[in-house]
Every structure is written in structure tokens, then in C-alpha cells.
Amino acid sequence: MLPFNVLAADSKSEDKPFKILMVLYPTFTLLDFAGANEVFARLPNVEVHVASPDGGPLTSDTHVAFGETMKLSKVTSCDLLCVPGGTDRSTMMRADVQDDLRRLAADAKYITSICNGSLILGAAGLLKGKRSACHWAQRSLLKQYGAIPDPARVVKDGRYMSGGGVTAGIDFALMVADELRGPVQAQVVQLLMEYNPEPPFHSGSVETAPPEVIAAFKKRYASLAATAGL
């Protein structure tokens, strides 16, 4: 069992805990949330809170049940707002939810997203003129919200930070960790997690995937492939 927190004796973290709010919704992508949360929750003097549009339990897009969440409208403030991606974003497009996102973003030090969570922030009008990452297959959709699609795995544009698709959430969270607590504490968490990926394949991007993989992807995920222009 890993230690929950890695607070060092010489940590320069602030006295007041830094409050991270992760906003989930039905069909959220589990790894978008879990990868980033694994990093956030192990940082010195950081509190991670989880909210959803209606509060209560949720189910991820892979049918994993998640326990109680706070109701988003009841959250008064946060230091960092984070919206992970998901399969069905319709709940997050509700007017009341978009209002809550804008309200919380107004006073947050950082506004962040993982995967296609950036499309939710974009729909709320929070990414106009800002560079942002997104899942590669939906990155072009950012343009309709006035955002600047960036193909980088992690992107920082002032107080806006974002990660690309799914697994990029871990890289994104380490970037956030560096921003909040410095490179040493970020790397302590990386070491604790043994995050040193050596994938057996190199098909994690359109540029590196072989033709037969692209063809199989187009057949299985036709709608996404069409959105991406494959």
C-alpha cells in the first residue's frame, strides 16, 4: 500500500491547503480522472474535491461505479478547476452547469482540463483565444469555441493548463504538480507511482500508428474517425 501523501519535512507548501476541484459527470472517462487524481492527491498540502452536476454517485463510461460526489452548485470556490473528459458530455452542457463552471473559474487560480474536457470548458466560453490540448480525434472541435487547438500532449497558456487524450492526464497532472509544488515534489510523486512508461507498441498517435491499426480504428470508431478527418 502506497503512502497517501508525500509531504516532506522541508516542503515549501503553503499553510492553507490548495483546493483542487475535479468535476465529474455520467460517462466520465475513468483514467482521465484517476490518473490525474493519483498525482494530485499525493502532493503536499493539496486537497482534492470531487463534484458533479447533480451530486451523488456516478458511473464511468466503462461502467465503473463512483461513490458520492458534491453537488457542483454547492461548491463555493476552488483554487484549481479541472474537468476530465467523457463519452457523453450533454449533462455538462446544461445552462446551470455552464454557469457554475464560469462562476468557479472566475476566482480560480488555474482552469484546467483533460482529454475532451476542454470542449466543456470551451462551450462555457472559458477558452476563447487560449491554446488547449484535447483528445486527438476531437481536437479540431475546439475551434468552434474560439480556442486554439494545440497538438502537444500537455499545454500551458497562462493560468490555463490542459492534457491530451486519456493517458496524457498523468503527464498533465505532473505539469500541474511542478507548477504548484516545484519539480522535486512532482518527481517524488512520479517516482512513487513508478511512472516510467515503456509501452509494448507505439500506436499512441496517428503519426506513429501503422496503416492496419488506423484502418481497424476507422472501422471500430467510425464517428470519431470522421470527426478527426481520417
Largest sheet: 7 strands, mixed
The main sheet orders its strands as 5-2-1-6-7-11-10
Structural class: alpha/beta
| Radius of gyration, in angstroms, nearest whole number | 17 Å
Order of helices and strands: EHEEEEEHEHEEEEHHH
Cα shape: globular
Strand content: 15-25%
* Average pLDDT reading: 95
Helix content: 25-40%
CATH topology type of the largest domain: Rossmann fold
Quaternary: single chain
Return the CATH architecture of the largest domain. Answer: 3-Layer(aba) Sandwich
Query: Count the strands?
Result: 11
InterPro entries: Class_I_gatase-like (IPR029062), DJ-1/PfpI (IPR002818), INH-QAR (IPR052158)
Pfam families: DJ-1_PfpI
Protein name: DJ-1/PfpI family protein
Domain DJ-1/PfpI: 19-177
Main traits of this protein?
230 residues, alpha/beta, Rossmann fold, 2 domains, seven-stranded mixed β-sheet, two-stranded antiparallel sheet, 11 strands, DJ-1/PfpI family protein, Class_I_gatase-like, INH-QAR, DJ-1/PfpI
Folded structure, characterized:
This protein is an alpha/beta fold and 230 residues long. The protein folds into two domains: 180 residues, 3-Layer(aba) Sandwich (Rossmann fold); 30 residues, no CATH class. The chain is 32% helix and 17% strand. The protein contains six helices and eleven strands. The strands form three sheets. A seven-stranded mixed sheet has the order 5-2-1-6-7-11-10, with helices on both faces. The chain has a two-stranded antiparallel ribbon with strand order 3-4. It has a two-stranded parallel sheet with strand order 8-9. Strand 6, helix 2 and strand 7 form a beta-alpha-beta unit. Helix 5 packs across helix 6. The longest helix has 26 residues. It starts with 17 loop residues before the first strand and ends with a helix. About 3% of the residues have low confidence. One of its GO terms (biological process) is regulation of DNA-templated transcription. This is DJ-1/PfpI family protein.
